[in-house]
Specification:
6 strands, elongated
Length: about 110
């Protein structure tokens, strides 16, 4: 019973404390090209670059892993950077990747 109460409490708090990020004017169009892909045994790496709205030329490097040994999912970490004039921006990336299989076509989703 204690475990059920704890689970319900955590689930309730995640909905109450979750934040809805309004994108509004913060949205921008991005057009990326895959520059290289390196396939490995324990991880795969992908480097992409392209134009990302007001951020100018953006460079991203992703490392995909499956440390949890799941069938259709995995994790990614990465680094993104850009320079516009004298302004330099850098971001670290982390998330989950999973695929949705429907009618012989695969959809790759990153969160």
């Amino acid at each position: 019973m204690k475990k059920l109460l704890l689970f319900v409490s955590v689930l309730f708090c995640s909905f109450i404390l979750g934040q809805d990020i309004p994108l509004g004017k913060n949205m921008f169009k991005a057009d990326f090209t895959v520059d290289s892909v390196t396939l490995g045994v324990d991880s795969n790496q992908m480097n992409v670059s392209g134009e990302a709205g007001e951020y100018g030329r953006v460079y991203l490097s992703y490392v995909f892993t499956n440390k949890m040994d799941t069938k259709d999912a995995g994790e990614f970490t990465g680094l993104a950077w850009t320079q516009v004039g004298e302004n330099f921006a850098q971001a670290s990336l982390h998330g989950q990747v999973f695929s949705i299989r429907k009618n012989t076509s695969d959809i790759l989703v990153a969160t």
